[in-house]
Amino acid sequence: MTLNQLSYIITIAETGSLNRAAEQLYVSQPSLTNAVKELEKELGVTLLYRSGRGVTLTNDGAEFLHYAKEIYRQYEDLIKRYGKGGSYKKKFAVSTQHYSFAVKAFVDMAQEYDMSKYEFAIRETRTQEVISDVSTLKSEIGILYLNDFNRKAIGKMLAAAHLEFHSLVNCRAYVYLWRGHPLAGEASICFEQLAPYPCPAFDQGDNSSFYDAEEILSTRDYAQVIKANDRATMLNLMVGLNGYTLCSGIICEELNGSDYVAVPFEDEEQSAESAMEIGYITRKNLILSEIGAKYIEAMKRYLAAI
Predict the structure, then answer these.
(1) How large is the average pLDDT for residues 28-44?
(2) Are 62 and 107 in contact (CB under 8 A)?
(3) How far apart are CA 174 and CA 276, in angstroms?
(4) Which tens digit of pLDDT belongs to each residue from 270-299?
(5) Is 214 within 8 Å of 127 (Cβ atoms)?
């Protein structure tokens, strides 16, 4: 069965004549007749009743026509969307832990394209969802970090999902807080100094583990922890409650504003967990799209300039 044969039956039913149908379809009447006979032979049913007055559908033919129209309509919808001059927009999506540099690079990349011809998406989300999104190709690229604490656990998740990690930058820990915080003017800050202040942390969901945490040193005994779901809420908590978070220190003032500072974290225990390796994940053996490659380059340019 072919789409041409479906089109032939639909046109014959609409015109009620093999001759008129052949004219509309720009095929010879013998070719049209042979195509219908071949279809009837394949299906094992008679679709058309032929008489001197023309052709009409048999009961089987009427039932077949219903399905043929539905299938052919879907085919025409596909052509309208994906064919030349169609309405289809190329898609590109990124899923990321909460990094302002990842958003900044996305903005820089998107500005190079005619937005009316593309469907872009960037999702700041939980660690497990970053991995899931890239595994299912909901997103082409994911952004997350590894360190000595989570590397083995996250590595197993990536391997199980057929993903691979590509390093972008290595960095030490910083304490991120607003400029009005009592510790904002310190040359460095140790863990004991942070004890009186709350630590907002990104909520990773009910089924999460310490390995999913976006904040490094997640197993330390924090006196006060507040869970948040988005970066804007996190910043509000830092201002309203003199909160802080431990991060990479890679802060985009263009997006976050200049009201915040990153102060070097002084790790008295000299823990290797206070070092971060930020990178991107993709499907194994994936060839990046043109947009994906430009996004990676935009991140590398930004990170190289800081």
Answers:
(1) 90
(2) no
(3) 11
(4) 666 678 899 999 999 889 999 999 999 999
(5) yes
Is pTM, for the whole model, over 0.85?
A: no
* 141 CB neighbour count, 10 Å cutoff: 29
221-268 pLDDT, tens per residue?
787 889 988 888 988 999 999 999 988 888 887 777 788 999 999 876
CB atoms within 10 A of CB 165: 19
Section 162-180 average pLDDT: 94
Of 276, 289, 280, 277, which is closest to residue 134 (Cα–Cα)? Answer: 280
CA–CA gap between residue 142 and residue 281 (Å, rounded): 5
H helical segments located in 169-230: 191-194
Dihedral of alpha carbons 288, 294, 298, 304, sign: positive
Section 24-42 average pLDDT: 90
Q: Alpha-carbon distance 90 to 84, whole Å?
A: 13
214/106: higher pLDDT: 106
Question: Is pLDDT of 58 > 70?
Answer: yes
Q: Kindly list the distances between the CA atom of residue 256 and the CA atoms of 73, 104, 251, 296, in Å, as whole numbers in the listed order.
A: 49, 10, 7, 21
For residue 49 the two structure tokens come to 């009743």
Q: Which of 257, 265, 220 has the alpha carbon at shortest distance from 238?
A: 257
* CA-based radius of gyration for the chain: 30
Query: What are the tokens at 62?
Result: 């009427």
- In this structure, what DSSP letter does residue 306 have? -
In the three-class reduction of DSSP (H, G, I as helix; E, B as strand; rest coil), residue 256 is classed as: helix
Measured at the CA of 172, the angle between CA 168 and CA 173, to 5 degrees, comes to 115
Placement of tokens 């989300």 in the chain: 125
Residue 2 CA to residue 12 CA, distance in Å, equals 16
